[in-house]
Structures are given as structure tokens and as C-alpha cells.
Amino acid sequence: MSQIPELDLTDRNWVAKYIDLGKEVLYLTQQEVIGMGLTQEDILKLTEHALISHGKKEYEMPAKIGVHPLPEVFFHAMPAYVPSKNACGMKWIECYPYNIQRFQLPQTTGLLILNDIASGVPMAIMDCAWITAMRTPAVTVLAAAALHPDAETFGMFGCGVQGIEHVNYVVHTLKKLKKIYIYDINEAAMDNLIKICQPKLDVPIVKGTPEEIAKSCEVMSSATIIIKECLSVVKDEWVSQGQTILPADLNTFWDPVTQRRADKYIVDSIAEHELFAGMGYFPDGLPKVCCETGEVLAGIAKGRENKDQLIVCSNIGMSVCDVVVAREVFNRALEKGAGRKLPL
């Protein structure tokens, strides 16, 4: 009979002081997740750690798998393991682009499960919408700082939840910003973003058209709807050498010509972009990928090498970031006695 291998039980023993592992699980609502008090600086540090771990290949994360009940939607199962943070779990999340119009519900909702590494039993079930809303802009602005640290102008396309958080986060990493431009098809969304963000920021926020923003900004990002059709709102002729473009909405918003002619096309996960390409989200095919975002942050791959390079860095979301942030939420919840324990 083979000998049972020894395990480091330090983390399990700590968690077991708070919950009866294998018999109960901690449940956290969205408001309880928010209530754990993670600051933007906390999220940035945790997300940077996850990205660098990914860049160094110190993780396990298969490409997203999903189902598609309606033509324009997807559900994704997103598992990941980041050893350095004892973070192991899976996010189950969906994207319904027309939820707001149809049901007055968010485009994105979902749950995240964390597991004990030593025994595999579930430890926590929590809302993942807030975590997703925070780690997504964190990835964008960390990439922006790595690729264009001296930028004085930033343009944000899409002024919903993600647009608001992108504007809130970008001032933490682009320290020389002098102006932020915003655009949304919905005028009220732009007004709402300014109302929420401007009192917190010293950098002026101004509205612009897609053409004005594309011709004015050194760094731009987009967080709009995710559909297979290329809307090409920003025309390629408006985009210049030396700019940095950071889509958070796949191939939807930009002229696909821009991504193909970029000097460097960088992605957060090659495997996940290839998966989306196979699903039809890149009708003209996936552009040639230079490297991954985490490799740039880890110093393994070069980012911008001269001021004239046009760089597109597409980040569609990786579960390594989700589980690392979720594990910190879980740790704080245990220490604060937050949430409720549910029997398994």
C-alpha cells in the first residue's frame, strides 16, 4: 500500500479555526464582498501579483469553457490555481449584452467558489460581479503603465460600470495624466460617469466623439458590449503611430484593421483569445500575438520599445486575477466574521 504524501496544512489549519471544513461553507453576498474594504490600491497589488504569476507560468488555468443559450450570450466556467496565494477556485459568470434594456439587470452576474487546496472541499461561495468589475480595470491600467507610463491623455469608450472603474483606476498608474476623455452612445451614461468620478479626481474629464478621442489620446480603452460583429466605431484612419489601445471588449469596438497593423498585439491569455477566435469573435482571424500582458509586467517580454510603436493590448479577463482577489476577500471575511455559514 502506497504511503500517503505529506502536505503543508498551514493554510487549512488557519481556515479551520473559522469554519468546519467539509461540513460548511462561507457564503458572501455582493454587499458583503464590497464590505471587506479592499481599496483600489489593494486590488491593483493583488491583480499585479496574479498577472506576474501568470507571466512566470506559476499558475494553472485552462482556457474558459462555456455554453451559449442565446446567440449573443455566453456563460463561462473559469477555474484557476495560484499557489503563491493559496488561491484555488472557479468563477461561473455570464454576459447578457441586452439585460439592461430587457430586464433592467446588469450585463454580467455570477458566482465564485473557493476550495481548500489540501482536501478539495469548498470553502466559500461569493458574488463575483464586484470582483470582476474591479480586477478588469486594474488589468487595463497596469498594462497602460507598463506600455505607456508617460501618457498625458486617456480615452475611455463605454461609461457603464466598467467605464466608471477604468476612469477611477487609471489615475493610480498613469501619474502624468492631464485630461481624460469619455464617450458613450448614451449621453446620460457620460453624465453619470462625470458625476461619480470627477469629484474624486484632479484630472478633468471631458466628453468627446469617437473621432475626437481617437485623434487626441495617447492611451485608450473600451468596455462596451461583447458581440461577434465588429462594430468598428473607431475607424483605423483615426488611429496614429505611438498610441496604446487596451480593449476590454474583444474585437467589438475597434476597426479590426488597427489590430492587424499594430506593431505589437499583446493579449492577457493567448489560449483564451484563440478560444474566442474559434467561437467566431474574430471574423477575420486572430491577429498575430506578440506576447502576454503578464510577461510584460514580469519583465519577461518587452513592451513598448520606441515612442512610435502602435500597440494594442487586449485583455478579456483571466480567472487567476479573480481567485487571487477572492481569496483576499475570503481571508478578511473570516477575520471579520462576515457572511453566513451554510451546511454542505
UniProtKB/TrEMBL annotation:
Pfam families in the cross-refs: OCD_Mu_crystall
GO terms for cellular component: cytoplasm
Source organism, top-level taxon: Bacteria
PANTHER family linked: KETIMINE REDUCTASE MU-CRYSTALLIN
Protein name in the entry: Ornithine cyclodeaminase
